[in-house]
Automatic annotation (TrEMBL):
UniProt keyword annotation of tRNA processing present: no
GO terms of molecular function: DNA binding
Top-level taxon of origin: Bacteria
Signal sequence extent: none
InterPro entries recorded: Cro/C1-type_HTH, DUF5753, Lambda_DNA-bd_dom_sf
Organism of derivation: Amycolatopsis cihanbeyliensis
UniProt name for this protein: Helix-turn-helix protein
Record key words, sorted: Coiled coil
PROSITE patterns: HTH_CROC1 (PS50943)
Limits of the HTH cro/C1-type domain: 15-71
Lineage: Bacteria, Bacillati, Actinomycetota, Actinomycetes, Pseudonocardiales
Coiled coil: 61-88
Keyword NADP applies: no
Length: 277
């Protein structure tokens, strides 16, 4: 269970205790608010994140206005939760890769947008190795590079799970960043080309000098109903339905400017020629 999931479960327990304190049953709350019984259960067990309006209605029904502001403040923190990298990676990168693998194994839809580097799910070992080493140096965390690379390669097995829908969108600029040696980067480009044509994996490249429908200010992942954003110091998880929908809408618009299929292959070949030259 992630830190976010633990906190959401604790928040649900507070809602349940508030209901019990006011001698109301879950069925009573559902009936009075016009909700399905399952919604009350999911909120109280931490399987669903409430909206602000849910908390307000809950407190109003139970005549618990004194608890409303504190709950709303906690909910705001819960929706956009920052998890510091140094705390997440205090034992190294491998455990984080294993955690990501578990979440993605459960997922049915994965959408990744990367602006500055190749997405971890399709990195070659050499490319991933360089990423892990530089991050460990910057954050001053334990180096477990080879174990982390092995775990990342294991994660990539989901690319062959035909029950999943996977979209990977990368900027052409990211392909030119010298994350590793030119010869190794050429191998990375070839790895991306092998994804083209896979029936359940869609690879797209945002070409240089092509007008974009919106400025992608950072990369992100959408795994089912979660959005994850990585920055230098922390990881941000978003579970608010409206915000998740916004990221889906942005992704759809970015795809309208993307090169895929043979066009993506042309972009990759052009980048490889530049590196070889």
């Amino acid at each position: 269970m992630t830190d976010f999931e633990t906190r959401r479960k604790e928040f649900g327990a507070k809602l349940r205790r508030l209901r019990e304190h006011h001698a109301a049953s879950g069925r009573d709350v559902a009936n009075e608010l016009g909700w399905p019984q399952s919604k009350v259960s999911k909120l109280e067990t931490g399987k669903q994140t409430p909206d602000d309006s849910d908390v307000i209605e809950w407190c109003t029904l139970l005549d618990a206005s004194e608890a409303r502001d504190d709950l709303l403040a906690e909910l705001a923190e819960l929706r956009v939760q920052q998890i510091e990298w140094r705390r997440q990676l205090r034992a190294g990168h491998r455990d984080k890769q294993t955690q990501l693998d578990q979440r993605q194994q459960r997922a049915t839809r994965i959408r990744a947008v990367d602006i500055t580097s190749v997405t971890g799910l399709v990195q070659t070992p050499d490319y991933a190795r360089r990423i892990f080493r530089t991050q460990a140096d910057l954050l001053e965390i334990p180096h477990d590079t080879e174990a982390a690379v092995k775990a990342r390669m294991k994660r990539q097995q989901i690319l062959y799970d035909t029950d999943k829908q996977i979209e990977i969108l990368i900027s052409e600029a990211a392909l030119a960043h010298m994350i590793t040696m030119p010869t190794e980067l050429i191998v990375q480009l070839d790895r991306l080309a092998t994804l083209i044509g896979m029936p359940h994996v869609r690879l797209g490249i945002l070409p240089l000098y092509r007008q974009l429908p919106h400025v992608p200010v950072h990369g992100y992942w959408i795994v089912d109903d979660y959005v994850t954003i990585e920055n230098i110091t922390a990881e941000v998880e978003i579970d608010d339905p409206e915000q998740v929908a916004l990221y889906h809408r942005l992704t759809g618009r970015l795809w309208t400017a993307a090169a895929d299929g043979d066009d993506a292959r042309t972009v990759l070949s052009r980048a490889a020629e530049q590196l070889a030259g």
